[in-house]
Design goal:
single chain; mainly alpha; 3 helices; rod-shaped; transmembrane helix
Length: 71
């Protein structure tokens, strides 16, 4: 496989809609976590909101690493 074919395949993989849907889900989950963090003043809800925010961050990072790994 020559360099232009590899580049074309990499662009094709990086532009898959499933990756961007995964980023959107991660951002929405993160927004929910941030909202819950500041909506109410409760220790347990604060811990749960931090966990939700962490899950959203992991989802977004997973999608970004999929894009970066596209070779």
């Amino acid at each position: 496989m020559n360099q232009s074919e590899e580049r074309e395949q990499s662009m094709k993989t990086a532009n898959e809609t499933s990756i961007y849907k995964l980023i959107l889900v991660g951002v929405l989950v993160s927004i929910l976590g941030v909202y819950l963090r500041f909506a109410f003043d409760s220790t347990i809800l604060s811990i749960v909101s931090w966990a939700i925010l962490l899950i959203g961050t992991v989802i977004c990072c997973k999608a970004v690493f999929k894009i970066l790994n596209a070779k």
